[in-house]
Design a protein that fits this description.
- β4 (64-75) and β5 form a beta hairpin.
- The protein has one domain (11-88): Nuclear Transport Factor 2, Chain: A (Roll).
- It is flat and about 45 Å long.
- It is mainly beta.
- It has one helix at 20-33; strands at residues 11-12, 38-49, 52-61, 64-75, 78-88.
- Helices cover 14% and strands 47% of the residues.
- 2% of the residues are buried.
Length: 100
């Protein structure tokens, strides 16, 4: 993970994870133990401007199809800050456009 995320500064805005790599690792481990492991399967949208990168991905949270929206701030070539929104993808939608 240290190839992509700063080991010195990693600020987390997800209320379920503490700052730093240890906080991220502990949150991911707790989610997996609760049967809510996260798996990203595709990232159809990536937008970058300046030192910010936004991604929209689909995958699963546990067994639930899920959309992941992540905003990263990059410093010195590594992620130093993270915001996210996680939303279930309904089996049926009111339109044929898909989630993304």
């Amino acid at each position: 993970m240290t190839d992509y995320i700063s080991a010195g500064t990693y600020l987390q805005h997800n209320p379920m994870a503490a700052d730093g790599l240890d906080g991220l690792g502990a949150a991911m481990e707790a989610m997996a133990e609760a049967g809510q492991a996260m798996a990203y399967t595709a990232t159809p949208i990536i937008v970058a401007e300046g030192n910010f990168v936004f991604t929209a991905s689909d995958g699963t949270l546990g067994s639930t199809p899920t959309a992941f929206f992540d905003l990263f701030r990059v410093g010195s070539g590594k992620i130093v800050e993270h915001w996210d929104v996680v939303a279930p993808i309904p089996a049926e939608m009111a339109h044929p456009n898909g989630k993304f």
